[in-house]
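Sat 14:20. Reprocessing the chain from the morning session after the first attempt stalled halfway. Input below, unchanged.
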Amino acid sequence: MEKKIDVLYAEDDQYTAEMIKMFLEEQEFNVRIAGDGAQAWNVFRYCPPDLLLLDLEMPGKDGLELVRLVRETNKRIPIIFYSAHMDVAKELEAIKLGADDCIHKNGDKDLLLLKLRNIYHRITRDEKDPHIYFLSEATKYNAIAGLLTINGKKIFLKSMDARLLQLLCVKMHEIAGDEYLIRGLWGNVQEQNKENALRKTIKHLRDLLGADTSLLIKNDYGEGYVLTSCKFPERN
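Finished this time. Tokens:
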């Protein structure tokens, strides 16, 4: 990296906070720790970081409240949730409030590192509009504009395709469960009534992404779908 990315990490578990701080600083990030949401909010107001890494459940102010406060004053700063307490409803609420990524703590730390580096590219390569997901060397997606760019070709997505791609981008390289996708697209409906519609929407999005052969939307039968790249290493 040409510059260290300044991360403000809000985490009330001291052991986890120090472990992640050590891991990320070995990878050339600078990490400041806030022990709860209230402290994180105070630090953010007076000394804003390059990005926010948040736990969900914290004393003082929880992660969702913190995102709400931050987005009232700053629409651009990237926000990643890193929590063991994410369920579908909370995850979708986090995205609605303006979170860019949600990662489960039980996952591989390399996935956290990958997503933070993706954020780095958003900051350095598209500073005027950082809400962009770099899906591969050839493809990026502007979730605010619903604009998919593949090999320089711009495609403005219809609302359902745009929403689905954003939901998959937030969970990139992780399983996006059927319930998460269905509720994210259609709200609180009976899941079994929308499974066929979800499959059709996935198929249409696969067709749109087809020009980039490095990108895959894999079906993890019985679990959900994974947006990934053929260059991303498989994990057992």
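The mean pLDDT is 88.
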